[in-house]
Amino acid sequence: MDPKLDLLLRSFTFYISSILSIIRFFLASFHRFKQIPSAFALSDACISLYFRLCGLSPVSIDVDDTTTLHFWATAGRNFRPSLVMIHGKCGDSRWQFMYQVGHLSRRFDLYIPDLLFFGKSYTARKERSEVFQAECLAEGLRRLGVDRFSIYGISYGGYVGYHLADMIPDRVDKVVLMSTGVGCNDDQKDKLVAKLGRDPKLLLVPRTTEDLRQLMLKSVYRSGYMKLVPDSFLQDYVNVREIGHKKEKMELVDHLLAKSSGAGRSLPVLTQETLLIWGNKDYVFPMNLAYQLQRHLGSKARVAIVKEAGHAVNMDAPDEVNRLIISFILG
Questions:
Q1: Which of 55, 102, 145, 155 has the maximum number of C-beta atoms within 10 A of its C-beta?
Q2: Are 116 and 50 in contact (CB under 8 A)?
Q3: pTM, rounded to two decimals
Q4: pLDDT by residue (tens digit) across 45-84?
């Protein structure tokens, strides 16, 4: 087929599928709710459409008989460097990366998973460790045919990304970790929990609008706009994005905060070049943890501090984060 005709046909198919997706969404919403879709539901649909316009498509991969991983992945192969973007504990991959996917999709083939028990990813197995998440992600990427890639992990996603890079070093080129507690010892965990002033599970698995609002206030330094977000929107977010698999998500938090047994192996040292991005106003994981992890990793790691940014640097300063990622990975 003529290349121009093929491109025209693929573009036409994409736009038709996007329109049909919107129609299906509205029909499903009216059927389910018997009323006009909420502001959150409309926002959720718009973000999905935006991901499609950035050249990404949803795909689900069966890792084994009881485990399914859902991805947003670059449609087709553009022979660009591959970047795996791993979200943190609140929401799913779309909501955490909506400020970055447009810019990064122009430079990389993106693979953005929902971690297990987030979005549409699920397992019936009982493992709750970050290592298990990494194992499933490694297998899911293999089944997608992604041979080599770099990693960008936020907060909890940084834990998963760290173990993924250690697990398959021959497939991982470079690693970007942002605002993550990798390397925290038991004393540091206790101090961080005490500093929060409330049960971490109420923040990381919010059940009320106040829980979610507090999570945002502690994560986003430039969070003044949170006062303008109505409770109805936040409640819809909790009902749709956070209520699913609540028990399993709490078990993930329990595992993350569990005391070290002393019998496990020490934190491995990654072989890849690693960039640690931190906000200088991070309330959750303060900057000293960035330099602590840098010392552990040695000469292949460097720290980039973003000023006037909190734990969610990707929301406080997405343009600067994008610039740091592109310059580091593409050199």
A1: 155
A2: no
A3: 0.86
A4: 888 889 998 999 999 999 999 999 999 999 877 789 999 9
